[in-house]
Amino acid sequence: MKRLHLIALLLLVASSLFAQSSSQPPSTGTPLVPPPTTQPPTGQGPEKTGVAPPAPAFVPNLFGSFFNAGLQIRNEDQGRSSKFEEYRDVPSGLSGPAFRIFSDANGNPFLVSGENIAQNDRRFYVWADTPVVRVDLLYDQIPHRLGNNAKSPEKIVSREALGISDYIQASLQNALQQQFNTSRTGINFAFLRSLVEPLINTPEVFDLGFDRKRAFLNVGLFPDAPVDTTISYFQENRSGTRSAGTSFGFGNVVETPEPVDYRTREAGLRMEMPLENLMLRGSLSINQFANTYSSYTFDNPFRVADSTDPTAYTAPGAASIGGPSRGRLALPPDNSRITAAIGGIYKMPMHSRLTADIAFGQMCSNGDLMPYTTNTAILATVPESNTLPIDRFNGRINTTSATVSFTTRPFTNFNVSARYRFYNSDNDVRRIEFPGYVRFDAVWEPIPRITVPYSWKNNRAEILASYDIGSEYSVEAGFRNDRTNRTFREARRTTENIAHIALDARPFTWVTWRNSFEFGNRSFDEYDVERAEGATFVEPEAPVNPEGLRRFDVAERSTQRVISILSVNPFNGPLSATLNFTRYFDNYSKHAEFGLLKWRNQTWTAEADFSPSERWSTFAFYSREYWDGFQRGRQSGAVPSTNPLDNWSADNSDKANSLGAGFTMGVIPDKLDFNFTGRMQRVSGYANLDSPPGGTPDVAFDIPNVDDTRLWSLLAQFNYKLSTTWNLAVGGWYERYRINDALNTGTQQYLPGAFFLAPNDLGYRGSAAYITSTYRW
Amino acid sequence: MIKADSINELCYTCHTDKRGPFLWEHSPVRENCTTCHAPHGSNHERLLVAKLPWLCQRCHVSTRHPGSLYDLRNTVAGANPNNRAIEHSCRNCHNNIHGTNAPSGPYFGR
Q: Looking at beta carbons, which residues of chain A come within 8 Å of B16?
């Protein structure tokens, strides 16, 4: 139901709408806050790998001041879908306002600006450049509306506790007990549905979502000093809820609103010292994440008293009506990261440059562990469940990153670059053994388990050479070797070799054709299909995976990448067009029998714009994207099946068609202009499922609408210049979003084995009409 | 050409809640977020590269429920809606799939 691809487009449309409507002056021509720019060292290229990235520097490239405000009427139907304002505000009444104040008094430029300052998606920016400091300060907040009118049987007792009244829990437990005593098989969905009727008829109703607020402060000290020093501070707060899968077992999922109350802070120091032919740099950053809540609890609708039995994780059902009265879910733990980096760039003869960087980091988390379970019946009967082997977990991962690169142009038209990169993620925490665990707070499983501190190490070497044949053609060839060593994984080492060739052609000044082709192969040293699963068991367990499974992130594969881009601007005239084709293909099927076997993505894009005069211009685009993943599984009971008739396959494909067009027309030159844009996107997904007859599952039914999403948007706007300082814009827009997804659309509050929040995050029709005015000085 | 020391370290600059380290780690998650997520765009919720449960089943097709087929019958409007297929799918139970500090969390259910 959350088609983020579509939402990205929606946001793009929305941002362009607002850029032209309520939040920004229609004809500013430049953004209020220019995009972040990195600042390469003087005379050097952009090679920065291995050093912690500089804090964003927002360098204004515009002058002048303005104030802009608007009035807007909005309309939305289909019952308040959260999608309409998922990551934005669409207010009725005052919209925006926006402003920018720029001053260059005494040669010390200063800028302060704001967007949507009366809205929940507000943004502010301050920039100042003085002989002593250069300051960038950015603040923005974005609402994350994840579902309106969510409905839960659980009342929100506090941010850390959801609850159902004991009376209701007792009623349901007693009714279940009665049925269990009378006829266990009568505990079916129809029975349970009638039991929970009062709960779902009087739900707790709330909106899911959180606000994300963040601020960057970047201070460059003594800009004219020989050492460029920048200190930075970043903070982000997130507060609200999001939906979470919380469960009491196979037949009793209770989706709940998970509390989100995060705070991330980062302080950084970065220094660069340019010398003759040499630039040295270093950085230090400390990042901390704090979560107000380490866990939260939720009630079991069907139990008021804790109980346990060997099959309580399947309750409520014919086998058991046991289980806990409440469960507890761990939330992301507080953690931190510190990174120190040092490096440099050395300029050499023959247009050559050597770059080297090394960075050391450490990720840590420290926190008290919650108990094995909330279930007092387990605690009372299983002594091991009362004591944890450790009370507090101190996690630590050390990282090392090193990059050395060399670029040279030994003679005209010939460029060579070589790079070696090393990255090591070393989890050196000692393994912790647990005598067992509690499954869904329902059953103690006396199966000793041990933590697995995964580590991995990557070495990558690559070389690339290019040659320009006159000004019309250039060719490029390269090779990359990528080796990764892993602990506790099925393959201990994978090696991937990738070759790359490219050809650029510019046969005429108005034609550019760029083509690149990559092909590669990945192999592993060995593959132990049970090693990863088995790593968490103290005693080796019986095999559970089919022998032919190859997990695709470490599996042998062949890859292809093709990119072709043709750009034409016939005779340098008013028409320009671009055609783009990409194809990515990963094939695992040569060595794998189960798991992901093939993955493919193809994209065709055509876009054109036509600007015959200053009075009018028009554009249009179309793209078709295609994704396809083919995988195979085998259905088994307690032991892995060896019967090929138990196989099943899924060939899941998605097609996205996007098209749009628009034009801008000067109705009265330098006085009145009009622009119009229309866009449409449709995504269709199909799950082609298959299973041979005679085995289990025996038959498979395709899912024709595993994805089915459409988005339309229209925008029209008049801009009228009242005077050299006043501008007026009048316009309107319309959006329609439709979704019909087999796995999410139409979910009810109670379905077999699960309570769902069933929020409204579905389709909508929305529109707005607005008038905005801008004053400049 | 990413501006961090690894793909995950770039993701962790915003998604610090996923950084851990955790008591129970999920190895592909620790190594590379893009194994499951497509940060530049996706048709699926949470920018996943494929829809659940099939994304999980690209690796997990072991005995019992992970290796079972989920099809039209198990959809919301199907004859037998299944809590392993709809809404959060596998994550209805295995919610803490990025890792967890719950002692009872080797399967990321707590």
A: 262, 264, 287, 289, 335
Distance CA A674, CA A26 (A): 11
CA distance A547 to A533: 13
CA–CA distance from A63 to each of A109, A110, A721 (Å)? 10, 10, 19
Q: Which residues, at least 6 apart from A645, have a Cβ–Cβ distance to it below 8 Å?
A: A692, A693, A694, A695, A696, A698
The neighbouring-strand residues paired with A680 are A659, A712
Cross-chain residue pair A4–B35, CB shorter than 8 Å: no
Single-letter amino acid, residue A60: P
At A441, the amino acid letter reads D
Strand pairing report for A295-299 and A437-439: unpaired
Beta-carbon separation of B92 and A291 below 8 A: no
pTM of the full structure: 0.91
Distance from CA of A163 to the nearest CA of B (A): 18
Preceding omega of A543 cis (within 30 degrees of 0): no
What's the gap in Å between the CA of B46 and the closest CA on chain A? 7
Write the residue in A434, A440, A544 that is nearest to B109 by C-beta: A440
A-chain residues near B80 (CB < 8 A): 752
Beta bridge partners of A288: A265, A336
- Please report which confidence band the pLDDT of residue A47 belongs to, taking 50, 70 and 90 as the band edges: very low
Of the candidates A388, A427, A654, the beta carbon closest to that of B103 is on A388
Shortest CA gap A665–chain B (Å): 33
Residue A452 has pLDDT above 80, yes or no: yes
Other CB atoms within 10 A of residue A128 CB: 16
| Partners of A70 in beta bridges | A95, A772
Nearest by CB: B95 against A4, A287, A329: A329
Q: For the segment A418-446, what is each residue's pLDDT rounded down to a tens digit?
A: 999 999 999 999 999 999 999 999 999 99
Contacts A–B by Cβ distance under 8 A: 308
Maximum pairwise Cα distance, chain A: 91
| Complex ipTM > 0.90 | yes
Residue B68 to residue A453, Cβ atoms within 8 A: no
Interface touch A363/B20, C-beta < 8 Å: yes
Contacts B37 to A, Cβ<8 Å: none
Average pLDDT, chain A: 91
Question: How many angstroms separate the CA of residue B11 from the nearest CA in chain A?
Answer: 13
Cα radius of gyration rounded to whole Å, chain B: 15
In the sheet that holds A326-330, the strands lie side by side as A155-158, A161-163, A295-299, A326-330
Measure the CA–CA gap between A636 and A626, rounded to whole angstroms: 32
3-state helix, strand, coil in chain B (%, to 5): 30, 5, 65
**Cβ-contact A548, A596 below 8 angstroms:** no
Q: Which two tokens stand for residue A188?
A: 């079916």
Which residue matches tokens 């020093």?
A229
